[in-house]
Amino acid sequence: MAATVNLSSTPSNPISKLPSFSLNSPQKTSFSLFPNSSSFPCKPFSHSLKSEFITTSSKNPISDLFPPNKSGPEGDILSSFSVDDDKPREECGVVGIFGDPEASRLCYLALHALQHRGQEGAGIVAVNNNVLQTVTGVGLVSEVFNESKLDQLPGEMAIGHVRYSTAGSSMLKNVQPFVAGYRFGSVGVAHNGNLVNYRALRAMLEDNGSIFNTSSDTEVVLHLIAISEARPFLLRIVDACEKLEGAYSMVFVTGDKLVAVRDPYGFRPLVMGRRSNGAVVFASETCALDLIEATYEREVYPGEVLVVDKKDGVQSLCLMPHPEPKQCIFEHIYFALPNSLVFGRSVYESRRVFGEILATEAPVDCDVVIAVPDSGVVAALGYAAKAGVPFQQGLIRSHYVGRTFIEPSQKIRDFGVKLKLSPVRAVLEGKRVVVVDDSIVRGTTSSKIVRLIKEAGAKEIHMRIASPPIIGSCYYGVDTPSAEELISNRMSVEEIRKFIGCDSLAFLPFDSLKKMLSTDSPKFCYACFSGKYPVMPREVNVKGVGDSMDDGLNTPLASIDGHWIEGPPNFDLEKEIDPLYQESKI
């Protein structure tokens, strides 16, 4: 039986031993075992799921359900002084390593490569002589770990996690990986994604005696594994996954096994690679493999469970049936690093083509093309090359500004943006400027950037956005504002142009995006652009404008992770879903 040693400042509580009980799920999963995982393509096939979700007719199918907040979205959204506060936030990155004597150190380096996926907390669990040892902390990877901490994590197997919290302070007990002991040993888990039926599962578990130590949906998975009557451990994971709805790319570790799991829709990325010594590596992006000199082999297929141990090597268990994949398109637009392969595609090439499409479909007479760094750079290069206009660095980004900064008593306008971005007057003065950014969420930061460029002497400013308008919140592991805060859900393109103060504004056309993806287009999730959700949450996580959330540790259960509202019984999705979807069915 594996033991657990927690080296962080917060002890890990063992999961209670509970009797088994039934958890109803809208999809029942069967499975088949494929020992030769390297050659088995876990091909999905169409499977209809009954949707249970509240929706009404509007640009965003949830926006009319909740009374709009009277205060506008401007608010104080830059109080933490980060340009990125007006972007969707990828909430997690995960790593798993098996069969390397320096597993924890390699895990540490891989987490560095994934730091862009989460900056609020980091952790590593290593296995040595059947003992799970963990170090977790709040902050960047470099702040959480040092030489002495890594010395406490010996062993040839490790998993790691970087985390972004929605707002407020990141409490240590919510930092992953989580480790729990149950009657057959110990298990650690790191999770990227979001379970849309979390509250229902948690309530059911608590009714049967479970005690939760965090407000994270990931802890539900550990409880489900603990109460499962399936044997062996691998089938416990399968049993638990049968009850999960939503997005999950997870890595598990026990005393002798490393397990990687991806949800049937494949919302969040997860890849597999190998080092020259045969060590197996799993990571959210291929950029993590590159840093630790692991060769990319393939994706973990949607609906696949991969198990690695010394006895059997790598085995693949395919959860079936499962639907057509719905991979997150925003990985290619914003989240992933340009040097990564995500869902089998180069992120760099995707963004370059986005820029080319904008230059073709929304041309404008200009003297220079600039980017909002860093995520707009590659699309700007594509725009400039296609338009035959020079690309120049018109905005310089400071990488040395933290999340907070002391503002002088005499208030400086657009202080947060000015801390992060500095305009280059020599590039901008007297010029007709095309500014390429990856997305517009609230619009507040875009208006400040336009103002900066105007103050630097630009003659004209033409904004080009390398994504379609965002009209819907994400429920699959991305922190996005409420519907009321999404400017494209409230305004037309012309209204947005006036709001941010530019001379012209164009978004990447939705149809052109799908055309560019060609035959892969049906495999992507576009819920944030269309309001059509592949997995309809029965519990709608809605944040009011300006909500301050603290991970639920200092507030009532009702406010954990926002405000969860269950759909009314007998609600007919097909009759109420937005008009665009109804038109598409005709």
From TrEMBL:
GO terms for biological process: 'de novo' IMP biosynthetic process; purine nucleobase biosynthetic process. Residues 1-21 are annotated as: Disordered. Pathway: Purine metabolism; IMP biosynthesis via de novo pathway; N(1)-(5-phospho-D-ribosyl)glycinamide from 5-phospho-alpha-D-ribose 1-diphosphate: step 1/2. Gene3D superfamilies: 3.40.50.2020, Glutamine Phosphoribosylpyrophosphate, subunit 1, domain 1. One of its GO terms (molecular function) is iron-sulfur cluster binding. In the C-terminal section; belongs to the purine/pyrimidine phosphoribosyltransferase family. This is amidophosphoribosyltransferase. The lineage of its organism: Eukaryota, Viridiplantae, Streptophyta, Embryophyta, Tracheophyta.
